[in-house]
Design a protein that fits this description.
Cell_div_ZapA-like (chains A, B); cytoplasm (chains A, B); 91 residues; homodimer; septation (chains A, B); Cell_div_ZapA-like_sf (chains A, B)
C-alpha cells in the first residue's frame, strides 16, 4: 500500500503565510486554518493597537478556553453514557 | 444578589505577562493559562529560531486542531445518543 497522501495548504495569518500539512483531508486543514485566521482578524479588529504576538497569544487563549469547555462537556457525556450502560446491564 | 465575582490571573506567556479574567473559577483560568503556556514552551523548545508571533500562531493552529477533532467526536457521540434515545422510544 502506498503511504497515505499528505495534504498541504497555504494560509495567510496576520499577514504571514503558513503552510499546513497533515494526513487529514484538505477540507479539514482549510476548516482549521480558516477558524484560526478568522479569530485573529476578529481580535485585531477589536484591538487594532495590539501587536501580532499579543493577538496570536489572545487567540490561543480563546481557543484553549473553548477547547477546555468542550472537553468538560464531552467528559460529562461519556460519564453519563457509562452510567446508562451500567443501568442497562443491571436492569 | 451580588454580581458574580470575576476571577483574575496573571500569567507569563513567551516572556510577556497576560491577565486572564472571567467568571470561571481561578483554577479553571490557571488550567487554560498553563495549557497555552506549556504549548508555547514546547513549540519554542522544538523551534528555537522561530519568533514569538510564529510560535503563538503555530500554537493556535495546534489547539484549533485538537478542538476540531474533539468537536467531531463530540458531535458523533451526541448523534449516537439521539439514535439510542429513538430506539428506546420505539422499543
Amino acid at each position: 500500500m502506498a503511504l497515505k497522501e499528505r495534504s498541504k495548504l497555504r494560509i495567510d495569518i496576520l499577514g504571514q503565510e503558513y503552510v499546513l500539512k497533515g494526513t487529514d483531508s484538505p477540507e479539514y486543514l482549510k476548516k482549521v486554518g480558516n477558524f484560526v485566521s478568522d479569530k485573529m482578524d476578529q481580535v485585531y479588529k477589536n484591538n487594532p493597537i495590539y501587536g501580532p504576538t499579543k493577538i496570536a497569544v489572545l487567540v490561543s487563549l480563546q481557543i484553549a478556553d473553548e477547547y477546555q469547555k468542550l472537553k468538560d462537556d464531552y467528559e460529562k457525556i461519556v460519564e453519563e453514557l457509562r452510567v446508562l450502560d451500567k443501568i442497562h446491564k443491571i436492569g
